[in-house]
């Protein structure tokens, strides 16, 4: 390129760039030309009546979940007006680990009242836990139940219950009765009297005497039942009331934890199941619709659930179980009171895994004791035909307890026999034989018991610490907040 051409380009390019810049500025200025402002007009004020109607409609829609309201409005036998008697916090709460539920159907309340008042002596106390708006309480009063005690967790129901039923003084207590396990744990820290205060006024009787009171509650977790087992093991708190009748509504999964047989599988038939069936008699009474109780439980978002647990949770979405539970009157005929703590340790030690073999485990405490079991004629007899205790209805669950026995030996016992193969009565029989051996009191087992007494005080928790399937996240929350949410 010549020097003249270069000079010409240098002179032309700045002019062209200036022209382009000027053109762009003109276009932009035209586009952003200021438009005349539109005067603002104030909206007319709504009338007081219209505002109140809109506010009430909005509040009602917010307080009652849409799926709950639709079910109560469209399902035969349901009354949507009942929902107005519950605070919004209860209607919105929905979790698998909920510890309190409220009856919200009058027909179901009448059915349960018929069961509760059947063969009820006039002088026997009837305890209702979490009556809520009082649908069941109303049915009980209509059936001339006067010796009544109510425990309500939510204080917002207090005024309604007192006004509607004209209850005697101290008939209504505000407190979390299903959370006695939590109060007991807190009492252990500061030697408090929270549990004693909650149970004050309930009659005390000796264990061998008649039932002292009858109780109804809806439970959502196994913690309440663990506390009852713990009180018997430690012979304290609830144990001091004597024997009692409980009519409990629970999910199929929770019922499986207490009523399973050795054929149910590892996650259901655990140490806690064995202890419960030895301490208590239970009887399946019938099914009730789960949606007749508030809040509704959701099965969504449950992670790390095994197939059987998930199936039981899904089955419980429609119907729950009504179960009668009573402590065994002849318990101490087969298991002495002084041996309750030892039995708790025996089950805890050996049911860490159901696949633990019996002879190697016991020889860890008393060497060469396996020969005594193998050569024992009670264990070497041939298997005899026994009546199926389940009645062939549910092969993995007991609809009704079997009689307690401490003379039930395992058939064809050998070195490969596992703890998971034993029934609760067979575990008790093996334990009674184990503690009667001459080497028992000098065995390392006694040293292990002495070194872990603080764990025995929370026995029910240690039995099933891995049962996170019915309570997702509970174990982790308990570890992070032990002062308020653990046994």
Automatic annotation (TrEMBL):
InterPro entries: KsgA/Erm, SAM-dependent_MTases_sf. Keywords: Methyltransferase, Mitochondrion, RNA-binding, rRNA processing, S-adenosyl-L-methionine, Transcription, Transcription regulation, Transferase, Transit peptide. The keyword Transferase applies. One of its GO terms (cellular component) is mitochondrial matrix. It is found in: Mitochondrion. GO terms for molecular function: mitochondrial transcription factor activity; RNA binding; rRNA (adenine-N6,N6-)-dimethyltransferase activity. Residues 451-487 are annotated as: Disordered. GO terms for biological process: transcription initiation at mitochondrial promoter. S-adenosyl-L-methionine binds at residues 103, 152, 176. It comes from the Eukaryota. Residues 464-473 have a biased composition (Acidic residues). Its main location: mitochondrion. Its EC number is 2.1.1.-. Belongs to the class I-like SAM-binding methyltransferase superfamily. rRNA adenine N(6)-methyltransferase family. This is rRNA adenine N(6)-methyltransferase. It comes from Anopheles quadriannulatus.
């Amino acid at each position: 390129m010549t020097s003249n051409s270069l000079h010409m380009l240098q002179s032309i390019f700045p002019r062209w760039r200036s022209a382009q810049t000027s053109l762009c500025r003109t276009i932009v200025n035209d586009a952003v030309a200021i438009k005349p402002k539109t005067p603002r007009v104030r909206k007319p004020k709504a009338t007081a009546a219209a505002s109140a109607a809109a506010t009430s409609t909005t509040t009602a829609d917010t307080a009652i979940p849409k799926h709950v309201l639709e079910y109560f409005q469209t399902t035969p036998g349901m009354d949507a007006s009942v929902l107005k008697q519950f605070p919004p916090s209860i209607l919105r709460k929905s979790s698998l680990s909920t510890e309190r539920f409220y009856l919200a159907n009058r027909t179901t309340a009448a059915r349960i009242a018929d069961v509760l008042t059947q063969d009820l002596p006039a002088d026997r106390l009837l305890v209702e836990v979490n009556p809520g708006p009082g649908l069941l309480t109303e049915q009980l009063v209509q059936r001339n139940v006067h010796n009544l005690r109510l425990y309500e967790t939510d204080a917002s129901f207090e005024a309604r219950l007192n006004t509607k039923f004209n209850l005697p003084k101290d008939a209504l207590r505000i407190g979390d009765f299903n959370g006695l396990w939590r109060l007991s744990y807190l009492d252990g820290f500061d030697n408090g009297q929270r549990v004693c205060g909650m149970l004050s006024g309930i009659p005390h009787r000796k264990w061998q005497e008649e039932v002292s009171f009858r109780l109804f509650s809806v439970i959502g977790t196994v913690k309440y039942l663990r506390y009852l087992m713990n009180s018997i093991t430690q012979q304290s708190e609830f144990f001091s009331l004597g024997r009692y009748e409980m009519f409990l509504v629970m999910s199929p999964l929770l019922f499986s934890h207490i009523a399973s047989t050795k054929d149910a599988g590892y996650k259901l038939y655990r140490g806690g199941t064995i202890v419960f069936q030895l301490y208590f008699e239970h009887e399946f009474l019938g099914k009730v619709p789960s949606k007749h109780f508030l809040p509704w439980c959701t099965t969504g978002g449950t992670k790390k659930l095994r197939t059987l647990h998930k199936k039981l949770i899904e089955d419980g979405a429609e119907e729950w179980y009504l179960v009668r539970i009573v402590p065994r009157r002849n318990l101490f005929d087969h298991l002495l009171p002084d041996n309750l703590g030892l039995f708790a340790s025996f089950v805890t030690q050996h049911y860490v895994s159901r696949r633990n073999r019996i002879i190697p485990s016991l020889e860890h405490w008393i060497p060469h004791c396996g020969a005594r079991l193998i050569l024992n004629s009670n264990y070497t007899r041939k298997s005899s035909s026994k009546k199926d205790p389940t009645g062939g209805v549910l092969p993995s669950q007991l609809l009704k307890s079997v009689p307690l026995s401490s003379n039930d030996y395992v058939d064809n016992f050998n070195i490969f026999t596992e703890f998971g193969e034993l029934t609760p009565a067979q575990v008790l029989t093996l334990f009674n034989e184990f503690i009667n051996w001459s080497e028992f009191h000098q065995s390392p087992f006694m040293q292990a018991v002495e070194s872990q007494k603080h764990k025995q005080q929370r026995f029910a928790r240690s039995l099933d610490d891995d049962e996170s399937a019915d309570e997702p996240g509970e174990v982790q929350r308990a570890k992070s907040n032990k002062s308020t949410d653990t046994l």
